[in-house]
Specification:
Rossmann fold; alpha/beta; globular; 7 strands; about 15% strand
Length: about 260
């Protein structure tokens, strides 16, 4: 494209016909992204640990577009390989990988258990790395210089600033996700695969339920935009990163928090 060539804005933000995998896609942030991708014309696979839940979510989302569930536990390397192998048996390539599956653990400092570290780090950091590793062949088959394959990791503003709650393993895990994103972006960019992260602030989800029930007014007061996020806020940035409009963006962490982490 030359500097004076006209731009078709509809095509610029289109992901129609692309194949996406959204882990943790049965609820919360993952569901917001999966639904947004379907409404934008992508074919979407969703995964989560609980078979009944992810199957039911895929059934409901199939009223919008083509959505398929693949249950898997991504806290283990075996689970990551299983999900990748299942996808390889169904698709010749993968345009978009959204690494959203995550875990959290809250406990007072003096009582915080080792299991609270292991579960969170295994799911939030190790799971992202090994699933991406296993899916590289499919991502590379989709990748071109003009339209790279995309890996989008879901971090958190808790990995940017110190959170209000005692989630001692969660915030370091998300900081690790942000830096892993940069590291992979350098390596995979050379293979025409971009790697970026979204760092959500407060959105309605199972993970934020307790916090929003007990601290919603304080959280909204701390936000320069005076509200929590809504599904369109999350779907919008995820679609941007997956579309031609985001094809030259690589290795960035985008806070989607109304300005909380800078206020």
């Amino acid at each position: 494209m030359t500097p004076d060539e006209s731009i078709n804005v509809q095509d610029l933000f289109s992901i129609k016909g692309k194949v996406a995998l959204v882990t943790g896609g049965s609820r919360g942030i993952g569901l917001m992204i999966a639904r947004g991708y379907l409404e934008a014309g992508a074919r979407v696979y969703i995964s989560s640990r609980k078979k009944e839940v992810v199957d039911e979510t895929a059934r409901r989302l199939s009223e919008i577009g083509e959505c398929t569930s693949i249950p898997a536990d991504l806290s283990t390397t075996a689970g990551c390989k299983f999900l990748a192998d299942e996808l390889k048996s169904r698709e010749p390539k993968l345009d978009i990988l959204v690494n959203n599956a995550g875990a959290a653990w809250g406990a007072p400092l003096e009582e915080f258990p080792e299991s609270g570290w292991d579960k969170v780090m295994d799911t939030n950091v190790k799971g992202i790395f090994f699933l991406t590793q296993n899916l590289l062949p499919l991502l590379q088959k989709a990748a071109t210089p003009q339209d790279p394959a995309r890996v989008i990791n879901i971090g958190s503003i808790d990995g940017i600033h110190v959170p209000r709650v005692e989630n001692y393993s969660y915030s370091p895990s998300k900081a690790a996700v942000h830096h892993l994103t940069r590291h992979l972006a350098v390596r995979l960019g050379r293979r025409n695969i971009t790697v970026n992260a979204i760092a959500p602030g407060p959105f309605e989800s199972q993970m934020t339920k307790w916090m929003l029930e007990h601290m919603r007014e304080e959280i909204e007061a701390d936000c320069p935009l005076r509200r929590i996020g809504v599904p369109g806020d999350m779907a919008g940035v995820a679609i941007y990163l997956a579309s031609r409009a985001g094809s030259y963006v690589n290795g960035v962490v985008i806070p989607v928090d109304g300005g909380i982490c800078i206020s």
